[in-house]
Amino acid sequence: MKTTQKSKRKLKLVKHLALLIAPMFFVACFNDKKEEAENAAEIPVNQEMIAELTAPPHVPTPVGTRKAKKLIVKMEILEEEGEMTDGVKYVYWTFGGSVPGSFIRTRVGDEVEFHLQNHPDNKLPHNIDLHAVTGPGGGAESSFVAPGHSKVFSFKTLNPGLYVYHCATAPVGMHIANGMYGLILVEPAGGLPKVDKEYYIMQGDFYTKGANGERGLQPFDMQKAVDEHADYVVFNGKVGALTGDNAITAKVGETVRLFVGNGGPNLVSSFHVIGEIFDKVHVEGGDMINENVQTTLIPAGGAAIVEFKVDVPGTFILVDHSIFRAFNKGALAMLKVEGEEDKKVYSGEIRDDIYLPEGPGIQTMPTTDEIVASEVPAKSFEEQMEFGKQAYMQTCFACHQGEGQGIPNAFPPLANSDYLNADVNRAIDIVLNGLTGEITVNGEKYNSVMTRQSLSSDEVANVLTYVYNSWGNNGTVVTKEMVEKVKNKK
Ligand SMILES: [Cu+2]
């Protein structure tokens, strides 16, 4: 702005000196233009465009030479069950239905209008903190959204680079641990140099109640997460997301660019491709380019762009070189390269069969229905306790925890809960219809959302009987009739 005024003043002066000074005027003009381009906040946008979003390992079309635009991003949050590894189920919380979330591709100067949509079937409120945003909370404060709602905010991309986004709703670590992270790329004006293949890979660590490989639906384990004892460390949300038939591919002679992120929540990644050397690494996703790199460090909540030309065919293994994570916890992916051998570059035998998992993995997350517990009515108090415990472990456990102890500042305790013990009809109503607003449990304030639980009257009776007869509560027995009475009052 200042420069423009200055040059206007200059313009007045030169009026009289016409020809002689004319070249100086042009120089001033040129400088003005350069100034404008360097200040990304001033880059004009005059067209609107719906952003292409892609699930990993794919990335949207490069920006190329397009001008800055108003870019509309519509991101839907989905909480859904998926498979961590063979026989192990996990309820993922996702941006766009995949872990990592949908890839967003922008250029510097874009005005991003972000629509964050929380699917009505979800249980929890969420938000988004994009590291590419200049503003409080990276957008988190403006995007906090309850199930069945959509929030809109907008931001201008000021700095080129590869950035992580993640959910920042309390307990933040839990939301990230359940898969709520992804990457947003801000390309410089004119775009990144052209390459032959581009892929999207993101590491994450997972914490499950059972040990690595223990079958069944595995809930999140808060204590292991706090202790940083990961059961799984994986690329793209599950063991084998990028191995065997799901491997990424290239042809001999092609240049491959990997957009690599690390969602954490806890572990940093020593990213390495066995049998390749990175020709170029955009260190930490920024402007600095390092060359001829073997292993690059990707911080939790950080990213890197790595590029290399593939010279010989074979299967190249991508790992976190903290190597037990690769071979024992899942942090292993494959790049399959086809083409002519080049004995000068590499003469030896190349095996591509030793790390194949049994059978092809599932690439997209299955959208299975809610778990419906048994509809058989309990015949005795013991049976009620048994069925109630099952329902508790399937439905309430993830939030209220194994011993009903809850999680400070997020989920109130059910163990020895004065709030619970004071009013059984209120407790029935909470399980049937959910609860929002401030409550006080054992002297601590909570102000969050519990969504309604889809359970039958029998199941509500059983689960509450179990809760009331555990962890020091008052021993109330809840019957199906009591539940129906509360239901019918509505
Ligand atoms: Cu979240």
Automatic annotation (TrEMBL):
Q: Which residues bind Cu cation per the record?
A: 126, 131, 166-167, 175, 180, 321
Subunit details for this protein?
A: Homotrimer.
Catalyzed reactions per annotation: nitric oxide + Fe(III)-[cytochrome c] + H2O = Fe(II)-[cytochrome c] + nitrite + 2 H(+)
Q: Which PANTHER family match?
A: ALCOHOL DEHYDROGENASE CYTOCHROME C SUBUNIT, BLL4482 PROTEIN-RELATED
What keywords would UniProt list here? Answer: Copper, FAD, Flavoprotein, Heme, Iron, Metal-binding, Nitrate assimilation, Oxidoreductase, Periplasm, Repeat, Signal
Entry-linked InterPro entries: Cu-oxidase-like_N (IPR011707), Cu-oxidase_2nd (IPR001117), Cupredoxin (IPR008972), Cyt_c-like_dom (IPR009056), Cyt_c-like_dom_sf (IPR036909), Cytochrome_c-type_DH (IPR051459), NO2-reductase_Cu (IPR001287)
The positions making up the signal sequence are: 1-28
Q: Which GO terms describe its molecular function?
A: copper ion binding; electron transfer activity; heme binding; nitrite reductase (NO-forming) activity
According to the entry, every stretch annotated as the Cytochrome c domain falls at 383-471
Q: Where in the cell is it found?
A: Periplasm
UniProt main location, coarse: periplasm
Family named by the database record: Belongs to the multicopper oxidase family.
| Listed GO biological process terms | denitrification pathway; nitrate assimilation
Q: Which cofactor is essential here?
A: FAD; Cu(2+); Cu(+)
Keyword Transport in annotation: no
Q: What is its EC number?
A: 1.7.2.1
What metabolic or biological pathway is this protein involved in?
Answer: Nitrogen metabolism; nitrate reduction (denitrification); dinitrogen from nitrate: step 2/4
Q: Which GO terms describe its cellular component?
A: periplasmic space
Designated name of the protein: Copper-containing nitrite reductase
Q: Which domain of life is it from?
A: Bacteria
